[in-house]
């Protein structure tokens, strides 16, 4: 790692341990590319002892099919089953993303990942569930924080609530409805708004990322696939419900 990577890694570790945020300004030029950002991701996770082997739960996604998709492993202490209570965790400026999570039904080797395309990768999935990610950053002003610094910070992940798993079946994404209610605010309703048009579209890219160092991804590995509602602001104590009719629902307390 470069000196800048090492210093950034130490700063992110300290921010997590002390539950404080960082000014991004001194770090603006610390990471020249995504490879170095992922190295910082991995180094922070290793220092904090989050994983033993390949992480079991991931986030992956992007704003469109033409965007570069990004990926981050999710620390297991913050991945919880609905109804989930996160009152024991510290959040700084949390937001809610309503998503569909997918679960691998078989091991995927590097050779298999390399051969995947967007049309055949859904066959690897055995189950799906509604999920809600609480996004939160170790950066003080997320709006002005460079994308690579967000990526290094676990792609600004805070916590994840998972609904009940059900057998995977292709859905009509163009008409799929998503209903999200936060506290006493009106329910936010979206239809056909997945940024990639189909959550399974990211699978080949995500799996090639996970196998890039020669590892086989085990059956049971889970990935969340991008928000249907963007990021909705929330506050400590808010009760949240997200429902995808025909798929399931998630409840959580921030």
UniProtKB/TrEMBL annotation:
Protein origin, superkingdom: Bacteria
One MF annotation (Gene Ontology) recorded for this entry: 2-oxopent-4-enoate hydratase activity
This protein's GO CC annotations: cytoplasm
Gene3D superfamilies: Fumarylacetoacetase-like, C-terminal domain
Fumarylacetoacetase-like C-terminal domain: residues covered: 95-253
InterPro entries assigned to the protein according to its UniProt record, in alphabetical order: Fumarylacetoacetase-like_C, Fumarylacetoacetase_C_sf, Hydratase-Decarb/MhpD_sf
Keyword set includes Lyase: yes
Keywords for the protein's UniProt record, in alphabetical order: Lyase
Name of the protein this chain belongs to: 2-keto-4-pentenoate hydratase
Organism of origin: Variovorax paradoxus
Lineage, top ranks: Bacteria, Pseudomonadati, Pseudomonadota, Betaproteobacteria, Burkholderiales
């Amino acid at each position: 790692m470069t000196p800048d990577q090492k210093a950034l890694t130490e700063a992110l570790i300290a921010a997590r341990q002390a539950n404080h945020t960082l000014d991004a300004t001194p770090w603006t030029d610390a990471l020249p590319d995504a490879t170095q950002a992922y190295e910082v991701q991995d180094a922070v996770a290793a220092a904090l002892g989050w994983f033993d082997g390949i992480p079991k739960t991931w986030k992956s996604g992007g704003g469109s099919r033409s965007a570069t998709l990004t990926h981050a492993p999710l620390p297991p202490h913050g991945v919880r089953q609905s109804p989930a209570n996160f009152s024991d965790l510290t959040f700084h400026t949390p937001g809610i993303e309503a998503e569909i999570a997918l679960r691998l039904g078989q091991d995927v080797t590097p050779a298999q990942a390399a051969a995947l395309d967007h049309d055949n990768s859904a066959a690897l999935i055995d189950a799906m569930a509604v999920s809600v990610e609480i996004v939160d950053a170790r950066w003080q002003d997320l709006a002005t924080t460079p994308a690579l610094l967000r990526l290094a910070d676990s792609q600004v992940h805070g916590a994840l609530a998972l609904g009940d798993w059900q057998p995977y079946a292709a859905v009509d994404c163009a008409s799929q409805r998503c209903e999200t209610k936060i506290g006493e605010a009106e329910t936010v309703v979206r239809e056909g708004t997945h940024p990639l048009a189909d959550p399974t579209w990211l699978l080949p890219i995500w799996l090639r990322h996970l196998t890039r160092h020669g590892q086989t991804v085990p059956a049971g590995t889970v990935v969340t696939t991008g928000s249907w509602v963007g990021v909705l602001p929330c506050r400590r104590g808010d009760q949240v419900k997200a429902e995808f009719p025909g798929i399931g629902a998630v409840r959580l307390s921030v």
